[in-house]
Amino acid sequence: MAGRRIARLVSLVLPRGKHRASRVEADLAPIAALLAAGQLDNNDTAWCDTCPGRRVHAFHPDGSRTCWTCTTTTEAE
């Protein structure tokens, strides 16, 4: 009985049908261009003061990093 109630609650909470967000394909061209030009070392998470929170950043060879969410560049420490 409890299993049915949980399943019903989950079905009410989770998005389905027309309420579900459409799938967005990631455009990897900017990352590929930075890698090819040698302007990007790697991607990793770091604290972003603008967002705020831990976000994925592009780490550059000079030690600076650019947030992929808000595109803010933080200078090397």
Summarize the structure in words.
- The structure is a single chain.
- This protein is an alpha+beta fold and about 80 residues long.
- The chain has a domain at about 25-75.
- Helix content is about 25%, strand content about 25%.
- The chain is built from two helices and four strands.
- It has a four-stranded antiparallel β-sheet, with no helix packed on it.
- The longest helix is centred in the N-terminal third of the chain and has 12 residues, at about 1-15.
- The chain is elongated, with a radius of gyration of 20 Å.
- The model has no long low-confidence stretch (mean pLDDT about 80).
Largest beta-sheet characterization: 4 strands, antiparallel
Strand order of the largest sheet: 1-2-3-4
What best-fitting shape do the alpha-carbon axes yield? elongated
**How many helix segments?**
2
Classify the oligomer: single chain
How many strand elements? Answer: 4
- pLDDT < 50 runs, ≥5 residues: none
How big is the Rg? Answer: 20 Å
